[in-house]
Protein: Plasmid mobilization relaxosome protein MobC
Organism: Sulfobacillus harzensis
Amino acid sequence: MSEKRNKMLTMWVTEDEHRRLLERCDGRQLAAWMRQTCL
């Protein structure tokens, strides 16, 4: 069983930054993509 996530990160981005992140995640859920990419 995986460890339960109990911390939340919030970050402010511009409309352009948000669009670029969505383009990079290839249709996947953005949070899941960022977790896999950044950790």
About this structure: Residues 9 and 31 are 10 Å apart (CA to CA). Residues 15-24 form the longest helix (10 residues).
